[in-house]
Design goal:
single chain, four-stranded parallel β-sheet, 9 helices, globular
């Protein structure tokens, strides 16, 4: 087709039903087909959902939601991760089944006849894709939305004696039924992938030295509850996995002890460096504890030694950390140039 030949019209959009009783859109209004392009894995799993979908989604919606001419923002479903989306408070956000969202990317209008513009934004899910300003800006929006719930959850946390470390230990559970079904993009999760068979022993030994130690199964707790615990803790301990990515919710230079199985190491180093690099990005202390394989026990002494090797928290360190990272975030925001929606399809 010659460049000056008009393109044939695309078919009407599938999968999106008009909202009953909704008033007609204003002249000049349009809808946005938004694609958050994760770098790897599946956004149905928490790590890729947070860094590959939620972060770019928030950055895009912060620009699109206030615009009067934007009537709707269509995104794909992330299956059980969709429960996090209503908490963002974006009234124009419309979540479609994965296939319907993909089909919508081939159309010029939505089901209500609104012109459709397309926007593809990159994800940040991977050690080489991290961008502090982007992740921190989106995380700050999320923390603001969850603020009251986080404050309520914080009231349930123990009060540590003066000078005593507050420690959060993440454990893993059996996978939720969805991840064992044919519906999952990538099956498997939780203890099917990795586990710490002697976790109760580890917890007991750490508590004997540091009484203000709590355990948490992330799947049993809301994101607000996890954020409250992370912002309470001085040290976070966990096996390599998505829960450690929530360290971006911390309120200071919280230290991370990552238990990393040898059988997931690659050429770039232990544990694919996902959380080592995230710790460095956020200027948080990090200690790697080796695990013989993904389901091997870990000696309690190695965990205690890792904790002993960490710098002790102080009000001054926390104040400096906040000031430096706030400056880095503002510098990124000044440089950031968000992409604009286009009338061209993003698929193909």
């Amino acid at each position: 087709m010659r460049p000056d030949t008009p393109a044939p019209p695309r078919p009407a959009s599938p999968g999106v039903e008009p909202t009953p009783g909704k008033a007609a859109a204003a002249p000049g209004a349009f809808a946005v087909h938004l694609s958050c392009a994760n770098r790897s894995g599946s956004v149905e799993h928490y790590y890729h959902f947070y860094f590959g979908f939620l972060v770019p989604l928030v950055l895009a919606c912060e620009r699109l939601q206030p615009r009067a001419e934007v009537a709707a923002i269509y995104v794909r479903s992330c299956a059980i991760m969709d429960e996090h989306l209503p908490r963002l408070g974006y009234s124009k956000l419309r979540v479609l089944p994965r296939s319907a969202h993909e089909a919508l990317g081939e159309t010029d209008t939505d089901a209500q006849g609104l012109p459709l513009k397309h926007l593809r934004v990159p994800g940040y899910d991977g050690p080489n894709a991290y961008r502090f300003g982007a992740i921190q800006t989106a995380t700050a929006v999320l923390l603001e939305r969850l603020g009251p719930a986080i404050a309520q959850e914080a009231t349930t946390l123990p009060i540590a004696a003066d000078g005593s470390l507050k420690i959060l230990m993440f454990n893993r559970q059996a996978p939720q039924a969805f991840y064992l079904s044919a519906e999952a993009e990538i099956p498997g999760a939780g203890t099917d992938r990795r586990s710490l068979p002697n976790f109760p022993e580890l917890l007991q030994r750490v508590r004997e030295t540091y009484p203000a130690t709590i355990e948490m199964y992330p799947e049993d707790h809301s994101l607000a509850a996890q954020a409250a615990a992370l912002r309470w803790a001085d040290v976070v301990i966990g096996q390599h996995g998505a829960a450690l990515g929530n360290m971006v919710l911390c309120d200071g230079p919280t230290a991370l002890v990552e238990i990393c199985p040898h059988d997931i190491a690659d050429d770039s180093g232990p544990g694919k460096r996902h959380f080592l690099r995230l710790s460095r990005l956020y200027r948080m202390p990090y200690v790697h504890v080796a695990q013989e394989h993904s389901h091997a026990p870990v000696a309690p002494e190695t965990i205690l030694q890792a904790i002993d090797s960490l710098p002790r928290p102080s009000a001054l360190r926390r104040l400096v950390w906040r000031a430096i990272n706030r400056g880095r975030q503002l510098a990124w925001q000044l440089r950031y140039r968000p992409p604009s929606p286009s009338s061209s399809s993003v698929t193909g």
